[in-house]
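Homework-ish question, so no full write-ups if that breaks the rules, but can someone show me the predicted structure for this set?
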Amino acid sequence: MDYNFQEIEQHWQTEWEKAGAYKVSNTSSKKPFYVLDMFPYPSGAGLHVGHPLGYIASDIYSRYKRLQGFNVLHPMGFDSYGLPAEQYAIQTGQHPEKTTFTNIARYVEQLRKIGFCYDWDREVRTCMPDYYKWTQWAFIQMFNSYFDTSLQKAQPISRLIAKWEAEDPTWTTLTEKQQQERLMNYRIAYLADTKVNWCPQLGTVLANDEVSEGLSVRGGFPVEQRVMRQWCLRVSAYAPRLLEGLNHIDWTESLKETQRNWIGRSEGAEMRFNIKGQEEPFTIFTTRADTVFGVTFMVLAPESEYVKRVVTEDKKAEVEEYLTWCKHRTERERIADRKVTGVFTGSYAINPLTHAEIPIYISDYVLAGYGTGAIMAVPAHDSRDYAFAKHFNLPIIPLIEGADVSEQSFDAKEGIMINSGFLNGMEVKDAIRAMKEHITNTGIGRVKVNYRLRDAIFSRQRYWGEPFPIYYKDGMPYAVDEKDLPITLPEVDNFRPTEDGRPPLGNAKDWTYKGYPLELCTMPGFAGSSAYFLRYMDNHNTQALVSKQANEYWRQVNLYIGGTEHATGHLIYSRFWNKFLFDLGVICEDEPFQKLINQGMIQGRSNFVYRYIGEGATGNLYISYNLIDNPEYKDKVQPIHVNVNIVKNDILDIDAFRNWMPEYKNAQFVYSDGTTDQDNPYLGTPAEKQYICGWAVEKMSKSMFNVVNPDDVIAQYGADTLRLYEMFLGPLEMSKPWDTNGIDGVHRFIKKLWNLYEDINNDEPTANELHSLHKLIKKVTWDIENFSFNTSIPAFMIAVNELGKCHKRAILAPIAILIAPYAPHIAEAMWEKCQMVDGASSKRTFVIDAEWPVCEEKYLEESTIKYPIQFCGKVRFTLEMSKDASKEEVEKIVLADEQTIKQLAGNTPKRVIVVPGKIVNIVV
RNA sequence: GCGGCAUUGGCGGAAUUGGUAGACGCGCUAGACUUAGGAUCUAGUUCUGCAAGGAGUGAAGGUUCGAGUCCUUUAUGCCGCACCA
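A: Not a homework solution, just the prediction itself:
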């Protein structure tokens, strides 16, 4: 019988749905296992063939775990608030909810066709009130909490109030507004004036991870710095725990390293420098306390609080001018143009060790947001200070023996100290330690750990996001009552900001709570994705984000598969969010994702035709790729993207090309053999006449005509072939181009496999057949355990070849189970055929209810063992022995064969080594 | 600049513990079957050589009886971070 994949796949997808085969219960005696995909943002373009790569991998693992007897939670949902739907709404007036739901429907349909084992009852959508109720709820908890630095965990803000009431007599004298303002400095979700990334084109602020090189990640629009009053999350308070937690989770080293970089811990010291003629000192942060003797000037960030204090009257105008200039420089300009700029403040600081007077400058190479926004400059040993010193002609004092600082600074942290008072003669490392001790003892400063991680800016001046559960009274924010959640997103008739520049929610009618105005901003994209993994555990719960019982059963995500692009966004925020909920006692695990795998990207593989543009060109002649380097065409052709769906194995479908676009209707070709259409009035058959296309690996995108839709692949080959082929492409974690050239091979294999399930009998399997089967069991089990999915497929192919015409149920039934994770539809059909042998009951049982077969080593042992023998690494021959032979017997024969070895080698062997297995050294 | 990862035939890639490198697939070559084939089947396919043989996992060293695998140096590519003091 032919392999009718369409019928098989449709049939079993319906059966699964009817039976609720993938429904997962929160109460089971089975061991729980939680496999999670990063849920997608449903874009208008639908899924392309690259998106399901990770989903297929996680599906394989889920199905495998299920067959191993685990209760597997494997849900899917949609990150459905976001900019594209809103941009589309602004352009068309279409409500973003409508486009979002349409897109989701398309995604669900596409995912369903691939045959994933999702429990759709657990679907979440971040834009639904029953979901974002809990996003808002979490926000209120953050608003009502502060971070206790000594306990290193979040605590209810009421404790802080109680403490102040008891211990701080000034507290009760404050007005309510003053009290609220003071509390705002402690809340985990707080309102503050901060310098933000403002994107005028998008009309909103963006988080640091949403900006790259001064451009917005979404859309690539310029981003400028602005001070605005924004909601922030005190993520930085969790920096030590976010860093430490990385040691206990099973993520790739590169991803952990990315997060470590982003958190940016640096150990150093804070030191106070006195200002000449002033009482109050100012504080700087340095990691090179050892270099204090080489400080020849100080630099403040333009935005620094200290600037006001140190500018002298005569320098005021000059400084003002510089500050204004800085303000108007965008982040992008700053990065692009790194020439030295700065201005002298007129004031001098006193070096606390040398007591020298050193000038204080302002320059934008010092960042306000890091450390204290002020530095001590050591030009000899810091390249940025060096450039500044050269530009302003400031002294450069070398502090390390043998360091030549006439041309450039010596930045390395090694060498022997000189010119450094009591540090002279020490190694740099010791000097740092000694100086830290010195400044601590003398009270000049203290040891300090600094983090680069900043608080997350949490307001977006947009419509399509979660409303804040916050209202304003007397200009101060208050959280709405939890029982009034969710605060649902209001309808507006215009998705743009209001005339007077307020966010779009300013267009809503009656946007108030108990008569007070509600917050007009909405939450950013990462709000909804920060705890979705918890909601899947208990998504219908109306009383809590997740019940204690459900959370204690599932605990945490055991396997998370997703792209590496979320390394510094979602994967930091959700860890933070999770730790916060852990502090609250809402959940029982500190880290959300135990193991994380980054699937590689699937790039597009573009195809090109080569239009002739040389002498006498009509613009209508296309040269086959293999000819374009010929002298007559070289540099006279122009590559043009051609739709990859009308190219197969780099051979162009001529008719399809002529019909593709009107401009190609009369296209003429120079074929691979050099002939043209004129030479072949009858238009040769495709076998004889081939037009070969060039190719390149590029991002998969519409404009390159290289997008491959999984629906098309499924229509042509079936979902099982798609699933197998995506895995077969290469290691999961590697990026690779989508190349349809190999898909036929995989499809052929499935057909061969299917043919084995014809006329199944109950005969006893032979030793060889059992050997093939158990080899396969061992291999496939190992592969899945180790996420090496690509190597299982060859193993199946080999097994099918070895089994040839074997139709025995005892062999075929286990193979149906083994392939079920990879190709679930055909596995069901194969399983069913195995159940119906000998007129046995036609009762349908699912392969997913079967048990994963166990490899029995006894079938793997061969009757003989081959020992390849190496002599002095030169001569090899094979010694075939009974498998029962003892080590001594092997040695005996090897020794007996010494004559042969000698003959072959021509001299006395020093050693004979027998492989495989244990090394047997025989020294003669 | 700092950090991480990679580099194996014409191509994608195997080699799991240091033990016969190139599994499996694509492509290619030859043959069979066919009115035909973008179908199917069989055989071959790292390079070099008529052959015996020799060479061979980016490059150069090292450890080892034995290295794609471990160590050192280096080159190239990809990714992350970056006036972070």
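Now go work out the reasoning yourself. Hint: The CA atoms of residues 229 and 459 of chain A lie 9 Å apart.
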